[in-house]
Amino acid sequence: MWFLLLRNNGPREERNLETSLKELAAFLGGTVIGNGDIPISGIAGLDEAGEGDITFLASAKYVQKVATTKASAVILPAGVDAGGRNGIQVANPYLAFAKVLTLFEVRPSQPKGVMEGAVIGRDVVIGKDATVYPGVYVGDDVSIGDRVTLFPGVVLYEGVELGDDVTLHAHVSVRERCRIGNRVTVHCGAVIGNDGFGYAPDGAGWYKIPQIGIVVIEDDVEIGANTAIDRAALNVTLIRRGTKIDNLVQIAHNCIIGENCMIISQVGISGSSKLGNHVTLAGQVGLAGHLEIGDNVMVGAQSGVPGDLPANAVFSGYPAVPHKEWLKYSMTLPLLPDMRRAQNALEKKVAELERKLAGK
Q1: Quick one: which of 59, 119, 227, 298 is 20 to 30 A from 266 by CA?
Q2: Cis omega before residue 108 (within 30°)?
Q3: What is the pLDDT along the chain (360 residues), one digit of tens a residue?
Q4: Alpha-carbon gap, residue 15 to 25, rounded angstroms
């Protein structure tokens, strides 16, 4: 039986659960090793864990720490020897760690309603158990679902639609008519639906092209701090369900990002590019416009992508090439100065031989 104990530890109220190892194994769908009746009341890293804690081993290179950790139990990959320790064997220890961490540490929010200091426009619909903090601005004709939390400084322009269980952190802006699905989290300072970067040449200057489309964010998406997702020029910029976007990412107008993609910090995606499902773009990857990236593609950090990439492959470099080729290029780069010196020496020898032959 689970039970909940709240305690006050300074300014932060922590959520503590205590359960047995076998109950935790059932929750994770794992196999108990050792004493399944020992109590577990917390989770910590291998080095920091103490009595009552469960820790986890996600990489075999840290297996020696299992013998020295002070944790009461260890979450292990299936088939790994526990070395006489109590534990739980699971197929994916990192996922199990995330689930246990959520169980022990994530507290359900307590709805506060619309608080004094929030500005609410005309014909706004707000679902049940919402929290709208002071300093929030909600424009006319906005629809807000159940259990939505809007932190101070959030701005919703007219006609915005938010689904259920949406959390918008401080100073998030959602521009007019954009739509956000269920269970979406947007972190501080992000902007959804700002104008796409579109200008027509007009003599020596530029004529702004009105951006009259919207952004649609599907369910279970998370968007990092200070990320910008531009509205479409005419139709929709679309982020499909389950995609996770890091801080400081730029997604330009009319892009379509597939399901369950991972887009890491400082990525820039130019307009009208289309990403398939389960695409991973590592930090500082840059995509040119009007590209198509296939399903399950991975692109290494700081790569530049000037053209389409086929599905189910890994790419790296500038310009991006298959990853194994880029590794060969990278191994060659440090040798280039010596190769250049050798080439110059050979050229001198050839020139000398040619002079001698010409002298004959």
Answers
A1: 59
A2: no
A3: 233 332 333 333 444 578 999 999 999 999 999 999 999 999 999 999 999 999 998 877 788 888 889 999 999 998 888 788 999 999 999 999 999 998 888 777 789 999 999 999 999 999 999 999 999 999 999 999 999 999 999 999 999 999 999 999 999 999 999 999 999 999 999 999 999 999 999 999 999 999 999 999 999 999 999 999 999 999 999 999 999 999 999 999 999 999 999 999 999 999 999 999 999 999 999 999 999 999 999 999 999 999 999 999 999 999 999 999 988 888 888 888 888 999 999 999 998 898 888 875
A4: 20
- C-alpha to C-alpha distance for 352 and 41, rounded to whole angstroms: 81
Cα(66)–Cα(85) distance, integer angstroms: 8
The single-letter code of the amino acid at 196 is G
CB 177 within 8 A of CB 160: yes
Active-site residue set:
253
- Domains annotated for the chain, with CATH where assigned, are 3-105 (3.40.1390.10), 113-324 (2.160.10.10)
DSSP string computed for 225-260:
TT-EEEPPSSSEEEE-TT-EE-SS-EE-TT-EE-TT
pTM as predicted: 0.86
Q: How many CA atoms lie within 13 A of 155 on its CB side?
A: 11
